[in-house]
Amino acid sequence: MSEYEIRRYQVVDDDFLPQQIPPLLRQIYARRGVRSADELSLKASGLLHFSSLKDIEKSVELLRTALREQEKVCICGDFDADGATSSALMVSALQAFGLQQVGYRVPNRMTDGYGLSVAMVEQLASENVQLIITVDNGIAAHEAIALAREKDIQVLVTDHHLPPEELPPANAIVNPNQHGCEFPSKNLAGVGVAFYVLLALRSALREEGIKPLPNLADWLDLVALGTVADVVPLDYNNRILVQQGIARIRQGRSRPGIRALLKVANRDAGELAASDLGFALGPRINAAGRLDDIGLGIECLLAGESNAQQLAQQLNDLNQQRKSIETEMREHAESAVAKLRFDQGQVPDLVTLYQPDWHAGVIGIVAGRVKEQVNRPVIALANDDDEFLKGSARSVSGLHMRDLLERVHSLQPGIMERFGGHAMAAGLTMKKTNLARFSELAERVASEWLSEEQKQRVFWSDGELTASQLALDSVNMLQTAGPWGQQFPEPMFDGQFELVDQRIVGERHLKLVLRHPQGELLDAIAFNVDTQQWPVSQVSVVELLYKPQLNHFRGRTNVQLLVEQIRAIR
Length: 570
Fold this sequence. Notes:
This protein is of the alpha/beta class. It has three domains: 53-317, inorganic pyrophosphatase (n-terminal core) (Alpha-Beta Complex); 350-449, Diaminopimelate Epimerase, Chain A, domain 1 (Roll), CATH 3.10.310.30; 459-569, CATH 2.40.50.460. The protein is 39% helix and 19% strand. The protein has helices at 23-31, 56-69, 81-97, 118-126, 142-150, 190-207, 220-229, 236-250, 256-264, 274-291, 295-302, 305-338, 363-374, 401-411, 435-449, 452-455, 472-480, and strands at 5-8, 73-76, 102-105, 131-135, 154-158, 172-174, 351-354, 378-383, 388-394, 418-421, 425-431, 458-461, 493-505, 509-515, 521-526, 541-553, 556-568. The strands form four sheets. A five-stranded parallel beta sheet has the order 3-2-4-5-6, sandwiched between helices. The chain has a five-stranded mixed beta sheet with strand order 7-8-9-11-10, with helices on both faces. Helix 11 (295-302) runs antiparallel to helix 12 and helix 14 (401-411) packs across helix 15 (435-449). The chain is globular, with a radius of gyration of 24 Å. The two termini are 19 Å apart. This is Single-stranded-DNA-specific exonuclease RecJ. Residues 72-227 form the DDH domain.
Protein backbone atom coordinates (compact mmCIF):
# COMPACT_ATOMS: atom_id res chain seq x y z
CA MET A 1 0.00 0.00 0.00
CA SER A 2 1.32 3.43 -0.91
CA GLU A 3 1.96 6.11 1.68
CA TYR A 4 -0.87 8.54 2.31
CA GLU A 5 -1.69 11.84 3.93
CA ILE A 6 -4.70 12.70 6.07
CA ARG A 7 -6.01 16.24 5.73
CA ARG A 8 -8.75 17.72 7.84
CA TYR A 9 -11.49 19.93 6.48
CA GLN A 10 -11.34 23.49 7.69
CA VAL A 11 -14.10 24.97 9.83
CA VAL A 12 -16.64 26.63 7.53
CA ASP A 13 -19.57 28.95 8.06
CA ASP A 14 -22.70 27.02 9.01
CA ASP A 15 -24.83 29.77 10.56
CA PHE A 16 -27.42 29.34 7.78
CA LEU A 17 -28.31 25.87 9.08
CA PRO A 18 -30.81 25.34 11.92
CA GLN A 19 -29.23 25.68 15.34
CA GLN A 20 -31.07 22.61 16.63
CA ILE A 21 -28.81 20.49 14.41
CA PRO A 22 -25.76 19.40 16.43
CA PRO A 23 -22.60 21.42 15.64
CA LEU A 24 -20.76 18.34 14.31
CA LEU A 25 -23.48 17.60 11.77
CA ARG A 26 -23.84 21.26 10.76
CA GLN A 27 -20.15 21.34 9.88
CA ILE A 28 -20.38 18.07 7.94
CA TYR A 29 -23.27 19.38 5.86
CA ALA A 30 -21.65 22.74 5.18
CA ARG A 31 -18.37 21.11 4.14
CA ARG A 32 -20.28 19.03 1.57
CA GLY A 33 -21.79 22.04 -0.10
CA VAL A 34 -25.16 22.36 1.62
CA ARG A 35 -25.96 26.07 1.45
CA SER A 36 -29.47 26.34 2.84
CA ALA A 37 -31.77 24.61 5.28
CA ASP A 38 -34.05 23.80 2.32
CA GLU A 39 -31.43 21.35 1.03
CA LEU A 40 -31.91 19.23 4.14
CA SER A 41 -35.54 18.60 3.26
CA LEU A 42 -35.39 15.64 0.92
CA LYS A 43 -39.09 15.58 0.09
CA ALA A 44 -40.25 14.46 -3.34
CA SER A 45 -41.79 17.90 -3.85
CA GLY A 46 -38.25 19.30 -4.04
CA LEU A 47 -37.40 17.38 -7.22
CA LEU A 48 -36.49 19.38 -10.31
CA HIS A 49 -39.28 19.59 -12.87
CA PHE A 50 -38.99 17.54 -16.05
CA SER A 51 -39.98 20.42 -18.35
CA SER A 52 -36.40 21.66 -18.93
CA LEU A 53 -35.23 18.31 -20.32
CA LYS A 54 -34.55 18.62 -24.02
CA ASP A 55 -36.86 16.50 -26.22
CA ILE A 56 -39.08 15.60 -23.28
CA GLU A 57 -42.24 16.60 -25.20
CA LYS A 58 -41.16 14.51 -28.20
CA SER A 59 -40.52 11.52 -25.94
CA VAL A 60 -43.95 11.85 -24.34
CA GLU A 61 -45.61 11.99 -27.74
CA LEU A 62 -43.85 8.76 -28.77
CA LEU A 63 -45.07 7.05 -25.62
CA ARG A 64 -48.62 8.40 -25.90
CA THR A 65 -48.80 7.09 -29.44
CA ALA A 66 -47.48 3.70 -28.32
CA LEU A 67 -50.17 3.53 -25.64
CA ARG A 68 -52.95 4.73 -27.90
CA GLU A 69 -52.05 2.39 -30.76
CA GLN A 70 -50.90 -0.43 -28.48
CA GLU A 71 -47.61 -0.65 -30.37
CA LYS A 72 -45.06 -3.36 -29.80
CA VAL A 73 -42.29 -1.79 -27.70
CA CYS A 74 -38.84 -3.07 -26.73
CA ILE A 75 -36.74 -1.60 -23.92
CA CYS A 76 -33.04 -1.92 -24.78
CA GLY A 77 -30.89 -1.76 -21.66
CA ASP A 78 -27.35 -2.12 -20.42
CA PHE A 79 -25.73 -5.00 -18.58
CA ASP A 80 -25.05 -3.31 -15.23
CA ALA A 81 -27.20 -2.44 -12.20
CA ASP A 82 -28.19 0.95 -13.62
CA GLY A 83 -29.22 -0.70 -16.88
CA ALA A 84 -31.08 -3.46 -15.04
CA THR A 85 -33.03 -1.09 -12.79
CA SER A 86 -33.75 1.18 -15.80
CA SER A 87 -35.08 -1.77 -17.80
CA ALA A 88 -37.21 -3.10 -14.94
CA LEU A 89 -38.53 0.39 -14.25
CA MET A 90 -39.51 1.11 -17.84
CA VAL A 91 -41.06 -2.31 -18.51
CA SER A 92 -43.13 -2.50 -15.33
CA ALA A 93 -44.18 1.18 -15.33
CA LEU A 94 -45.31 1.12 -18.97
CA GLN A 95 -47.28 -2.05 -18.22
CA ALA A 96 -48.91 -0.18 -15.35
CA PHE A 97 -49.80 2.65 -17.75
CA GLY A 98 -51.60 0.06 -19.87
CA LEU A 99 -49.08 -0.92 -22.55
CA GLN A 100 -49.72 -4.56 -23.41
CA GLN A 101 -46.80 -5.45 -25.68
CA VAL A 102 -43.61 -4.35 -23.94
CA GLY A 103 -40.50 -6.46 -23.41
CA TYR A 104 -36.80 -5.88 -22.99
CA ARG A 105 -33.56 -6.85 -24.66
CA VAL A 106 -30.07 -6.43 -23.20
CA PRO A 107 -26.83 -7.39 -24.96
CA ASN A 108 -24.60 -10.05 -23.45
CA ARG A 109 -21.37 -8.50 -22.18
CA MET A 110 -19.24 -11.36 -23.52
CA THR A 111 -20.74 -11.91 -26.96
CA ASP A 112 -22.63 -8.77 -28.03
CA GLY A 113 -20.73 -5.79 -26.72
CA TYR A 114 -22.23 -2.63 -25.27
CA GLY A 115 -25.52 -0.99 -26.16
CA LEU A 116 -27.99 -1.09 -29.00
CA SER A 117 -26.40 -2.85 -31.98
CA VAL A 118 -27.16 -3.42 -35.64
CA ALA A 119 -27.69 -7.13 -34.97
CA MET A 120 -30.18 -6.32 -32.23
CA VAL A 121 -32.10 -3.95 -34.48
CA GLU A 122 -32.24 -6.61 -37.22
CA GLN A 123 -33.70 -9.06 -34.74
CA LEU A 124 -36.24 -6.57 -33.37
CA ALA A 125 -37.32 -5.67 -36.91
CA SER A 126 -37.98 -9.34 -37.63
CA GLU A 127 -40.20 -9.39 -34.52
CA ASN A 128 -42.18 -6.37 -35.77
CA VAL A 129 -41.14 -4.07 -32.93
CA GLN A 130 -42.48 -0.57 -33.59
CA LEU A 131 -40.75 1.47 -30.89
CA ILE A 132 -37.31 0.99 -29.32
CA ILE A 133 -36.61 2.75 -26.03
CA THR A 134 -32.99 2.70 -24.93
CA VAL A 135 -32.22 3.06 -21.24
CA ASP A 136 -28.73 3.83 -19.90
CA ASN A 137 -27.33 3.64 -23.44
CA GLY A 138 -27.99 4.70 -27.01
CA ILE A 139 -26.38 8.13 -27.16
CA ALA A 140 -23.59 6.79 -29.39
CA ALA A 141 -25.51 4.08 -31.29
CA HIS A 142 -25.46 5.89 -34.66
CA GLU A 143 -25.43 2.90 -36.98
CA ALA A 144 -28.01 0.86 -35.09
CA ILE A 145 -30.44 3.76 -34.75
CA ALA A 146 -30.01 4.76 -38.41
CA LEU A 147 -30.90 1.18 -39.37
CA ALA A 148 -33.93 1.23 -37.09
CA ARG A 149 -35.22 4.39 -38.76
CA GLU A 150 -34.65 2.84 -42.20
CA LYS A 151 -36.83 -0.06 -41.08
CA ASP A 152 -39.52 2.35 -39.89
CA ILE A 153 -38.90 1.65 -36.19
CA GLN A 154 -39.27 4.70 -33.94
CA VAL A 155 -36.42 5.22 -31.43
CA LEU A 156 -36.49 7.02 -28.08
CA VAL A 157 -33.05 7.32 -26.49
CA THR A 158 -32.86 7.84 -22.73
CA ASP A 159 -29.28 8.01 -21.55
CA HIS A 160 -26.94 9.93 -19.27
CA HIS A 161 -23.54 9.19 -20.78
CA LEU A 162 -21.53 11.98 -22.36
CA PRO A 163 -22.66 12.44 -25.96
CA PRO A 164 -20.44 12.35 -29.05
CA GLU A 165 -20.17 15.44 -31.24
CA GLU A 166 -22.80 14.06 -33.63
CA LEU A 167 -25.96 12.64 -32.10
CA PRO A 168 -27.68 9.56 -33.53
CA PRO A 169 -30.82 10.06 -35.69
CA ALA A 170 -33.33 9.06 -33.00
CA ASN A 171 -36.88 10.42 -32.93
CA ALA A 172 -36.19 11.84 -29.47
CA ILE A 173 -33.17 11.94 -27.16
CA VAL A 174 -33.52 12.61 -23.44
CA ASN A 175 -30.09 13.06 -21.88
CA PRO A 176 -29.30 15.93 -19.48
CA ASN A 177 -25.72 15.94 -20.78
CA GLN A 178 -26.58 16.59 -24.42
CA HIS A 179 -25.85 20.02 -25.85
CA GLY A 180 -28.74 22.43 -25.42
CA CYS A 181 -30.36 20.61 -22.51
CA GLU A 182 -31.13 23.09 -19.73
CA PHE A 183 -31.99 20.56 -17.04
CA PRO A 184 -30.03 21.89 -14.01
CA SER A 185 -28.71 18.54 -12.78
CA LYS A 186 -26.31 16.74 -15.11
CA ASN A 187 -25.84 13.89 -12.63
CA LEU A 188 -28.92 11.71 -13.19
CA ALA A 189 -28.18 8.01 -13.57
CA GLY A 190 -29.75 6.15 -16.46
CA VAL A 191 -32.58 5.04 -14.19
CA GLY A 192 -33.11 8.65 -13.14
CA VAL A 193 -33.48 9.78 -16.76
CA ALA A 194 -35.98 6.97 -17.42
CA PHE A 195 -37.93 7.96 -14.30
CA TYR A 196 -38.15 11.58 -15.46
CA VAL A 197 -39.51 10.49 -18.84
CA LEU A 198 -42.21 8.54 -17.03
CA LEU A 199 -43.01 11.54 -14.83
CA ALA A 200 -43.56 13.61 -17.97
CA LEU A 201 -45.75 10.91 -19.48
CA ARG A 202 -47.92 10.72 -16.37
CA SER A 203 -48.33 14.49 -16.30
CA ALA A 204 -49.46 14.56 -19.93
CA LEU A 205 -51.96 11.74 -19.41
CA ARG A 206 -53.32 13.41 -16.29
CA GLU A 207 -53.90 16.63 -18.25
CA GLU A 208 -55.89 14.58 -20.76
CA GLY A 209 -58.09 13.43 -17.89
CA ILE A 210 -57.04 9.80 -18.12
CA LYS A 211 -57.64 7.86 -14.89
CA PRO A 212 -56.50 5.91 -13.00
CA LEU A 213 -52.77 6.47 -13.37
CA PRO A 214 -49.97 4.66 -11.54
CA ASN A 215 -48.22 6.37 -8.65
CA LEU A 216 -44.62 6.56 -9.84
CA ALA A 217 -43.38 6.80 -6.26
CA ASP A 218 -43.92 3.03 -6.21
CA TRP A 219 -40.84 2.69 -8.43
CA LEU A 220 -38.49 4.86 -6.37
CA ASP A 221 -36.87 1.79 -4.81
CA LEU A 222 -35.53 0.93 -8.27
CA VAL A 223 -34.43 4.52 -8.88
CA ALA A 224 -32.53 4.64 -5.59
CA LEU A 225 -30.81 1.31 -6.24
CA GLY A 226 -29.70 2.21 -9.77
CA THR A 227 -28.56 5.71 -8.78
CA VAL A 228 -26.36 4.52 -5.92
CA ALA A 229 -25.04 1.46 -7.78
CA ASP A 230 -23.93 3.62 -10.74
CA VAL A 231 -21.90 5.87 -8.39
CA VAL A 232 -23.21 9.11 -9.90
CA PRO A 233 -22.70 12.28 -7.83
CA LEU A 234 -25.35 12.66 -5.15
CA ASP A 235 -26.35 16.25 -5.79
CA TYR A 236 -29.49 17.57 -4.11
CA ASN A 237 -31.82 16.14 -6.76
CA ASN A 238 -30.23 12.69 -6.66
CA ARG A 239 -30.26 12.72 -2.85
CA ILE A 240 -34.01 13.24 -2.97
CA LEU A 241 -34.45 10.30 -5.35
CA VAL A 242 -32.25 8.06 -3.20
CA GLN A 243 -33.74 9.15 0.13
CA GLN A 244 -37.30 8.66 -1.10
CA GLY A 245 -36.44 5.19 -2.43
CA ILE A 246 -34.66 4.17 0.77
CA ALA A 247 -37.62 5.37 2.83
CA ARG A 248 -39.96 3.10 0.90
CA ILE A 249 -37.62 0.12 1.34
CA ARG A 250 -37.33 0.78 5.09
CA GLN A 251 -41.12 0.89 5.33
CA GLY A 252 -41.40 -2.52 3.68
CA ARG A 253 -42.92 -1.03 0.51
CA SER A 254 -40.28 -2.21 -1.97
CA ARG A 255 -40.81 -4.78 -4.71
CA PRO A 256 -40.32 -8.47 -3.86
CA GLY A 257 -37.02 -8.73 -5.77
CA ILE A 258 -35.37 -6.04 -3.67
CA ARG A 259 -36.66 -7.59 -0.45
CA ALA A 260 -35.30 -10.96 -1.58
CA LEU A 261 -31.90 -9.45 -2.42
CA LEU A 262 -31.77 -7.85 1.03
CA LYS A 263 -32.50 -11.22 2.59
CA VAL A 264 -29.72 -13.10 0.77
CA ALA A 265 -27.35 -10.22 1.57
CA ASN A 266 -28.28 -10.41 5.28
CA ARG A 267 -29.38 -6.77 5.35
CA ASP A 268 -32.23 -5.49 7.52
CA ALA A 269 -34.56 -3.38 5.39
CA GLY A 270 -35.49 -1.29 8.41
CA GLU A 271 -31.86 -0.28 8.94
CA LEU A 272 -31.01 0.20 5.25
CA ALA A 273 -28.38 2.80 4.30
CA ALA A 274 -27.38 4.01 0.84
CA SER A 275 -24.10 2.10 1.18
CA ASP A 276 -26.09 -1.16 1.38
CA LEU A 277 -27.49 -0.46 -2.08
CA GLY A 278 -23.99 0.12 -3.44
CA PHE A 279 -22.10 -2.66 -1.67
CA ALA A 280 -24.71 -5.38 -1.10
CA LEU A 281 -27.49 -5.19 -3.69
CA GLY A 282 -25.74 -3.58 -6.66
CA PRO A 283 -22.91 -6.17 -6.86
CA ARG A 284 -25.38 -9.05 -6.84
CA ILE A 285 -27.25 -7.62 -9.81
CA ASN A 286 -24.00 -6.72 -11.55
CA ALA A 287 -22.73 -10.27 -11.09
CA ALA A 288 -25.35 -11.49 -13.56
CA GLY A 289 -24.12 -9.08 -16.21
CA ARG A 290 -20.48 -9.86 -15.53
CA LEU A 291 -20.64 -13.65 -15.52
CA ASP A 292 -23.92 -14.70 -17.11
CA ASP A 293 -26.86 -12.67 -18.40
CA ILE A 294 -28.15 -9.44 -16.81
CA GLY A 295 -31.61 -10.71 -17.69
CA LEU A 296 -31.46 -12.70 -14.46
CA GLY A 297 -31.07 -9.46 -12.51
CA ILE A 298 -33.90 -7.78 -14.41
CA GLU A 299 -36.18 -10.78 -13.86
CA CYS A 300 -35.43 -10.64 -10.14
CA LEU A 301 -36.43 -6.97 -10.05
CA LEU A 302 -39.63 -7.75 -11.99
CA ALA A 303 -40.47 -10.89 -10.03
CA GLY A 304 -43.49 -11.49 -7.85
CA GLU A 305 -43.43 -13.03 -4.40
CA SER A 306 -43.46 -16.59 -5.72
CA ASN A 307 -40.07 -16.64 -7.45
CA ALA A 308 -38.18 -13.56 -6.24
CA GLN A 309 -36.28 -15.48 -3.56
CA GLN A 310 -35.10 -18.17 -5.96
CA LEU A 311 -33.82 -15.56 -8.43
CA ALA A 312 -32.13 -13.60 -5.65
CA GLN A 313 -30.36 -16.76 -4.51
CA GLN A 314 -29.11 -17.39 -8.06
CA LEU A 315 -27.74 -13.83 -8.12
CA ASN A 316 -26.11 -14.41 -4.75
CA ASP A 317 -24.45 -17.59 -6.03
CA LEU A 318 -23.14 -15.73 -9.08
CA ASN A 319 -21.80 -13.01 -6.82
CA GLN A 320 -19.87 -15.57 -4.79
CA GLN A 321 -18.40 -16.91 -8.03
CA ARG A 322 -17.54 -13.34 -9.07
CA LYS A 323 -15.75 -12.76 -5.77
CA SER A 324 -13.65 -15.89 -6.24
CA ILE A 325 -12.63 -14.89 -9.77
CA GLU A 326 -11.95 -11.34 -8.68
CA THR A 327 -9.75 -12.43 -5.77
CA GLU A 328 -7.50 -14.45 -8.05
CA MET A 329 -7.31 -11.67 -10.63
CA ARG A 330 -6.62 -9.04 -7.97
CA GLU A 331 -3.74 -11.10 -6.62
CA HIS A 332 -2.25 -11.25 -10.12
CA ALA A 333 -2.71 -7.52 -10.53
CA GLU A 334 -1.22 -6.70 -7.13
CA SER A 335 1.77 -8.87 -7.95
CA ALA A 336 2.27 -6.92 -11.17
CA VAL A 337 1.88 -3.62 -9.32
CA ALA A 338 4.46 -4.70 -6.73
CA LYS A 339 7.01 -4.93 -9.52
CA LEU A 340 6.46 -1.25 -10.27
CA ARG A 341 8.43 -0.38 -7.13
CA PHE A 342 6.03 2.30 -6.02
CA ASP A 343 8.09 3.17 -2.98
CA GLN A 344 10.91 4.30 -5.27
CA GLY A 345 8.57 6.61 -7.16
CA GLN A 346 8.70 4.55 -10.34
CA VAL A 347 5.00 3.77 -10.73
CA PRO A 348 3.71 4.94 -14.13
CA ASP A 349 1.26 7.83 -14.31
CA LEU A 350 -1.21 5.36 -15.80
CA VAL A 351 -1.09 1.62 -15.09
CA THR A 352 -2.09 -0.80 -17.87
CA LEU A 353 -2.59 -4.43 -16.84
CA TYR A 354 -3.31 -7.44 -19.06
CA GLN A 355 -3.44 -11.17 -18.45
CA PRO A 356 -4.62 -13.66 -21.12
CA ASP A 357 -6.58 -15.73 -18.58
CA TRP A 358 -8.47 -12.88 -16.94
CA HIS A 359 -12.27 -12.88 -17.06
CA ALA A 360 -13.56 -9.93 -19.10
CA GLY A 361 -16.56 -9.54 -16.80
CA VAL A 362 -14.49 -8.70 -13.73
CA ILE A 363 -11.74 -6.45 -15.12
CA GLY A 364 -13.58 -3.30 -14.06
CA ILE A 365 -13.55 -4.36 -10.43
CA VAL A 366 -9.85 -5.25 -10.63
CA ALA A 367 -9.04 -1.88 -12.21
CA GLY A 368 -10.87 -0.16 -9.37
CA ARG A 369 -9.08 -2.14 -6.66
CA VAL A 370 -5.66 -1.48 -8.13
CA LYS A 371 -6.48 2.22 -8.59
CA GLU A 372 -7.24 2.44 -4.88
CA GLN A 373 -3.90 0.80 -4.14
CA VAL A 374 -1.63 2.95 -6.29
CA ASN A 375 -3.67 6.17 -6.68
CA ARG A 376 -3.16 6.23 -10.42
CA PRO A 377 -5.59 5.72 -13.31
CA VAL A 378 -5.71 2.02 -14.18
CA ILE A 379 -6.77 0.17 -17.33
CA ALA A 380 -7.26 -3.59 -16.97
CA LEU A 381 -7.66 -5.71 -20.10
CA ALA A 382 -8.73 -9.25 -20.91
CA ASN A 383 -9.20 -11.26 -24.08
CA ASP A 384 -12.41 -10.55 -25.96
CA ASP A 385 -11.56 -13.13 -28.62
CA ASP A 386 -8.46 -14.27 -30.49
CA GLU A 387 -7.97 -10.86 -32.08
CA PHE A 388 -9.38 -8.28 -29.68
CA LEU A 389 -8.99 -7.12 -26.09
CA LYS A 390 -11.68 -5.65 -23.91
CA GLY A 391 -10.60 -3.05 -21.36
CA SER A 392 -12.09 -1.36 -18.32
CA ALA A 393 -10.62 1.89 -17.01
CA ARG A 394 -10.86 3.60 -13.62
CA SER A 395 -9.53 7.08 -12.95
CA VAL A 396 -8.47 9.31 -10.07
CA SER A 397 -10.05 12.61 -9.16
CA GLY A 398 -9.27 15.35 -11.66
CA LEU A 399 -8.41 13.15 -14.64
CA HIS A 400 -11.36 12.58 -16.98
CA MET A 401 -10.99 9.03 -18.28
CA ARG A 402 -13.26 9.30 -21.30
CA ASP A 403 -11.48 12.51 -22.34
CA LEU A 404 -8.15 10.72 -21.98
CA LEU A 405 -9.33 7.95 -24.31
CA GLU A 406 -10.62 10.59 -26.72
CA ARG A 407 -7.17 12.21 -26.69
CA VAL A 408 -5.45 8.87 -27.37
CA HIS A 409 -7.86 8.34 -30.24
CA SER A 410 -7.04 11.76 -31.69
CA LEU A 411 -3.29 11.06 -31.46
CA GLN A 412 -3.71 7.78 -33.30
CA PRO A 413 -7.15 7.27 -34.88
CA GLY A 414 -8.20 3.66 -35.05
CA ILE A 415 -5.99 2.46 -32.19
CA MET A 416 -9.23 1.57 -30.40
CA GLU A 417 -12.18 -0.04 -32.11
CA ARG A 418 -14.57 1.74 -29.75
CA PHE A 419 -14.60 3.43 -26.36
CA GLY A 420 -16.92 5.38 -24.08
CA GLY A 421 -17.78 6.15 -20.49
CA HIS A 422 -17.58 8.78 -17.78
CA ALA A 423 -15.01 10.87 -15.97
CA MET A 424 -14.14 8.14 -13.47
CA ALA A 425 -14.87 4.97 -15.46
CA ALA A 426 -14.73 3.95 -19.10
CA GLY A 427 -14.59 0.94 -21.38
CA LEU A 428 -12.74 0.18 -24.60
CA THR A 429 -12.03 -2.46 -27.20
CA MET A 430 -8.83 -2.76 -29.24
CA LYS A 431 -6.81 -5.19 -31.27
CA LYS A 432 -4.18 -7.11 -29.32
CA THR A 433 -1.54 -5.85 -31.71
CA ASN A 434 -2.24 -2.27 -30.59
CA LEU A 435 -1.75 -2.88 -26.86
CA ALA A 436 1.88 -1.74 -26.55
CA ARG A 437 1.32 1.44 -28.55
CA PHE A 438 -1.92 2.19 -26.72
CA SER A 439 -0.22 1.78 -23.32
CA GLU A 440 2.53 4.16 -24.39
CA LEU A 441 0.11 6.84 -25.61
CA ALA A 442 -2.25 6.53 -22.63
CA GLU A 443 0.59 6.91 -20.15
CA ARG A 444 1.96 9.89 -22.09
CA VAL A 445 -1.40 11.68 -21.95
CA ALA A 446 -1.81 10.88 -18.26
CA SER A 447 1.68 12.27 -17.56
CA GLU A 448 0.73 15.51 -19.31
CA TRP A 449 -2.58 15.83 -17.51
CA LEU A 450 -1.84 14.60 -13.97
CA SER A 451 -0.47 17.10 -11.46
CA GLU A 452 1.80 16.13 -8.58
CA GLU A 453 -1.05 17.03 -6.23
CA GLN A 454 -3.32 14.52 -7.94
CA LYS A 455 -0.71 11.80 -7.56
CA GLN A 456 -0.64 12.21 -3.81
CA ARG A 457 -2.75 9.76 -1.85
CA VAL A 458 -4.85 12.13 0.25
CA PHE A 459 -7.77 11.34 2.54
CA TRP A 460 -10.05 14.02 3.94
CA SER A 461 -11.20 13.79 7.53
CA ASP A 462 -13.91 15.57 9.49
CA GLY A 463 -11.52 15.56 12.47
CA GLU A 464 -11.41 13.72 15.77
CA LEU A 465 -14.42 12.51 17.70
CA THR A 466 -14.85 12.67 21.44
CA ALA A 467 -15.99 9.64 23.35
CA SER A 468 -19.52 11.09 23.63
CA GLN A 469 -19.62 11.62 19.86
CA LEU A 470 -18.91 7.89 19.49
CA ALA A 471 -21.96 6.96 21.58
CA LEU A 472 -24.81 5.01 19.99
CA ASP A 473 -27.17 7.96 19.50
CA SER A 474 -24.50 10.17 17.94
CA VAL A 475 -23.34 7.48 15.51
CA ASN A 476 -26.94 6.70 14.59
CA MET A 477 -27.44 10.41 13.84
CA LEU A 478 -24.47 10.39 11.46
CA GLN A 479 -25.62 7.25 9.65
CA THR A 480 -29.17 8.48 9.12
CA ALA A 481 -28.18 12.03 8.13
CA GLY A 482 -27.41 11.05 4.53
CA PRO A 483 -27.90 9.57 2.08
CA TRP A 484 -24.13 9.62 1.63
CA GLY A 485 -22.41 8.76 -1.61
CA GLN A 486 -20.36 10.04 -4.53
CA GLN A 487 -19.39 13.72 -4.05
CA PHE A 488 -21.45 13.79 -0.84
CA PRO A 489 -19.16 11.51 1.14
CA GLU A 490 -20.01 9.70 4.30
CA PRO A 491 -18.34 11.38 7.31
CA MET A 492 -14.80 10.14 7.93
CA PHE A 493 -12.75 10.80 11.05
CA ASP A 494 -9.22 10.25 12.28
CA GLY A 495 -7.46 9.89 15.60
CA GLN A 496 -4.90 8.00 17.64
CA PHE A 497 -5.95 5.09 19.83
CA GLU A 498 -4.25 2.71 22.21
CA LEU A 499 -4.16 -0.77 20.70
CA VAL A 500 -5.56 -3.22 23.25
CA ASP A 501 -6.01 -6.30 21.05
CA GLN A 502 -5.56 -7.30 17.42
CA ARG A 503 -6.26 -10.50 15.50
CA ILE A 504 -7.00 -11.71 12.00
CA VAL A 505 -10.51 -13.00 11.34
CA GLY A 506 -11.54 -14.67 8.12
CA GLU A 507 -8.79 -14.50 5.51
CA ARG A 508 -7.62 -10.88 5.62
CA HIS A 509 -9.72 -8.94 8.12
CA LEU A 510 -8.11 -7.32 11.16
CA LYS A 511 -10.28 -7.19 14.28
CA LEU A 512 -9.19 -4.57 16.82
CA VAL A 513 -10.00 -3.53 20.37
CA LEU A 514 -9.01 0.10 20.98
CA ARG A 515 -8.94 2.50 23.88
CA HIS A 516 -10.09 6.04 23.17
CA PRO A 517 -7.89 8.82 24.66
CA GLN A 518 -10.79 9.51 27.05
CA GLY A 519 -10.68 5.92 28.28
CA GLU A 520 -13.58 4.12 26.57
CA LEU A 521 -13.00 0.79 24.82
CA LEU A 522 -14.09 0.49 21.18
CA ASP A 523 -14.32 -2.32 18.64
CA ALA A 524 -12.93 -1.79 15.14
CA ILE A 525 -12.43 -3.80 11.98
CA ALA A 526 -10.20 -3.29 8.92
CA PHE A 527 -11.03 -5.35 5.84
CA ASN A 528 -8.51 -6.85 3.41
CA VAL A 529 -5.37 -5.84 5.28
CA ASP A 530 -1.86 -6.91 4.32
CA THR A 531 -1.39 -9.93 6.57
CA GLN A 532 2.39 -9.59 6.21
CA GLN A 533 2.14 -6.27 8.05
CA TRP A 534 -0.69 -6.96 10.54
CA PRO A 535 -1.06 -7.94 13.30
CA VAL A 536 2.12 -6.49 14.84
CA SER A 537 2.76 -7.36 18.47
CA GLN A 538 5.15 -4.49 19.24
CA VAL A 539 2.68 -1.73 18.23
CA SER A 540 0.84 -0.04 21.12
CA VAL A 541 -0.64 3.08 19.48
CA VAL A 542 -2.23 3.39 16.03
CA GLU A 543 -3.54 6.22 13.92
CA LEU A 544 -6.83 5.41 12.22
CA LEU A 545 -8.90 6.90 9.45
CA TYR A 546 -12.36 5.48 10.06
CA LYS A 547 -16.11 5.66 9.73
CA PRO A 548 -18.14 4.98 12.88
CA GLN A 549 -21.00 2.58 12.33
CA LEU A 550 -23.60 0.63 14.23
CA ASN A 551 -22.93 -3.10 14.37
CA HIS A 552 -26.04 -5.26 14.86
CA PHE A 553 -25.21 -8.77 16.10
CA ARG A 554 -27.36 -11.34 17.89
CA GLY A 555 -29.93 -8.78 18.92
CA ARG A 556 -27.39 -6.32 20.31
CA THR A 557 -26.14 -3.06 18.82
CA ASN A 558 -22.77 -1.50 19.50
CA VAL A 559 -20.51 1.09 17.90
CA GLN A 560 -17.78 -0.26 15.64
CA LEU A 561 -15.14 1.70 13.77
CA LEU A 562 -14.84 0.73 10.11
CA VAL A 563 -11.14 1.32 9.47
CA GLU A 564 -10.22 2.80 6.09
CA GLN A 565 -6.50 3.28 6.86
CA ILE A 566 -4.30 2.21 9.75
CA ARG A 567 -0.81 3.34 10.60
CA ALA A 568 1.45 2.33 13.51
CA ILE A 569 2.55 5.26 15.68
CA ARG A 570 4.59 3.46 18.32
